[in-house]
Amino acid sequence: MSYKPIILVAGEPNSIFFEILFKVYKIKKIKSPLILIASHKLLYLQMKKLNFNKKVKIINLKKIKEYKLNNDSINLINVNYDQKRAFEKISNKSNDYIKKCFKVAIDLIKSDFSSRLINGPISKKNFLKKKFLGITEFFAKKFNKKKIAMLIYNKELSVTPITTHLPLKNVASKISKKLILEKIVLIDNFYRKYIGFKPKIAITGLNPHCESINKINEDEIIIKPTIKKLIKKGYKISGPFSADTIFLKKNRKKYNVIVGMYHDQVLTPMKTIFEYDAFNITLGLPFIRISPDHGPNEQMVGKNLSNPLSLIKAISFFERIK
Questions:
Q1: Which of 166, 8, 165, 17 lies closest to 90 in space, CA to CA?
Q2: Contact (CB, 8 A) for 227 and 171
Q3: How does 122-149 read in b/e, with b if 16+ C-beta sit within 10 Å?
Q4: Within a 10 A sphere around the Cβ of 289, how many other Cβ atoms?
């Protein structure tokens, strides 16, 4: 079996991404060629700081399709970045560098070199500057896609929030029948295409116990009618369920995906149950984009104590699918 190349965008220079990547090289037999887009200087500084040694092969971007790539070396597309020490404080300084790295990756995807991308973390505050809710929306804009979904994937159970990085006070006004329908269709398509079966999906209500003291009850007027419509269309979907009990073991084992109305409603229990054994997939793009399920984690930077499991699982997922 021939394994397709995976593009890695390192993301924020002052994060734990290089550390967990170094650990992956040490402990996992990687079958897919990895192509890292990052600064050679920064890579060298962090390799030295974290006591990691591996050859680095600088890839000529214009001739990338001519290489016979493996992982005996770190295959690097160099993007210049001037940083004096291995780690500094996260700031706006790295914004242009990160943009250039993403541009290289996007150009490679659009040239059909690869349809597989893993990106390291970025600082939403510094890099996105309130222009996008997250990298999910950043990529959607770059590829002119309006129907997208965030899937936090684990083979036992995955979750999707209908709204992503919104302040809680704004969630109710954004919930709509159209948005729920779009997300469910994307989830169903993804599972059938890449996992090989039609998923069983549970959907939560918005309000505690699916009840509201207000005149408008979103669970009754939006969520329930949407579920009925989806069932008629042949989707394996149930609900709405109260979010405080759907994640109990006896309940969650009945489903492949639990869809919630907002970010922490489903990501908090997901991370409590699986910790690092999950990763973020953007559905709806013309390629598969994965982000390991951690942020820059400034508190852990340079300590060599971070867990690489999410990145290992992301790479393993790419190696399992066609």
A1: 17
A2: no
A3: bbbebbbeeebbbbbbbbbeebeeeebb
A4: 27
pTM strictly above 0.90:
yes
Query: For domain 1-145+285-322, which CATH number applies: 3.90.740.10, 2.60.40.10, 3.40.718.10, 3.30.1480.10?
Result: 3.40.718.10
CB atoms within 10 A of CB 263: 20
- 10 Å Cβ neighbour count for 85? 11
Residues spanned by CATH 3.40.718.10 within the chain?
A: 1-145+285-322, 148-280
Q: What is the pLDDT of residues 252-310, one digit of tens each?
A: 999 999 999 999 999 999 999 998 899 999 999 999 999 987 666 777 888 888 999 99
Quote the DSSP letter at residue 219.
Answer: I
In angstroms, what CA-CA distances link 177 with 236, 238, 241?
A: 17, 15, 17
